[in-house]
């Protein structure tokens, strides 16, 4: 499945480096820095236009079964603004949940979120729910720093989502969300990398299964 929304999409160059000269770790660090700078430089008004295109596309991918647990995230550094969708899912009887770093270099825990819940600052100064039940996501919506056509994602470098997805067996439905400006020819996936099932950007939905 692949839809397009040309009016809301701005063209950005992709990485032409199909065989990086430096180590994969160094190459990823360089790409990550460039992509984050580019995303923040795009500015709030343009990102809001992209977000308006992304939200209905993402909503269509999410199951409507009551009591579905949706692993989501609290956006920062210009990520897709997912909180309005979290409120909608809660209103419909779903259970949004947010990631919590319980221990360094261990899989993330997901804890229930609902409107009005008390939030406290955690790792990277990101708010997390205080004293709510730990749950297992049926669907995992993952923010993307970068991504490629095969569905592989480039994250912030901590490895938390990689560990989490590997630990969740069977895997939940994996949906990556980002902007077209973050698309790369390849992220040069490593053995620990797991591709998303779908990638959603302002340009459409890519089925990577």
């Amino acid at each position: 499945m692949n839809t397009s929304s040309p009016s809301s999409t701005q063209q950005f160059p992709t990485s032409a480096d199909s065989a990086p000269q430096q180590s994969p770790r160094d190459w990823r660090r360089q790409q990550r820095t460039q992509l984050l700078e580019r995303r923040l430089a795009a500015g709030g008004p343009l990102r809001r236009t992209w977000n308006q295109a992304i939200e209905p596309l993402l909503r269509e991918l999410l199951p409507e079964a009551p009591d579905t647990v949706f692993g989501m995230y609290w956006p920062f550094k210009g990520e897709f603004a997912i909180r309005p969708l979290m409120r909608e899912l809660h209103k419909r009887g779903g259970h949004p949940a947010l990631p919590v770093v319980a221990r360094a270099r261990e899989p993330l825990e997901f804890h229930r979120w609902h409107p009005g819940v008390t939030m406290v600052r955690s790792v990277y100064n990101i708010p997390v729910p205080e004293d709510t039940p730990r749950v297992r996501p049926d669907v995992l919506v993952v923010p993307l720093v970068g991504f490629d056509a095969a569905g592989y994602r480039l994250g912030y470098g901590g490895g938390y989502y990689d560990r989490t997805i590997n630990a969740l067996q069977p895997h939940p439905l994996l949906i990556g969300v980002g902007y077209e400006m973050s698309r790369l020819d390849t992220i040069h996936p490593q053995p620990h990398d797991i591709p998303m099932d779908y990638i959603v950007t302002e340009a459409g939905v890519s089925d990577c299964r």
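Residues 22-207 form a domain with the Rossmann fold fold (CATH 3.40.50.10420). Residues 24-42 form the longest helix (19 residues).
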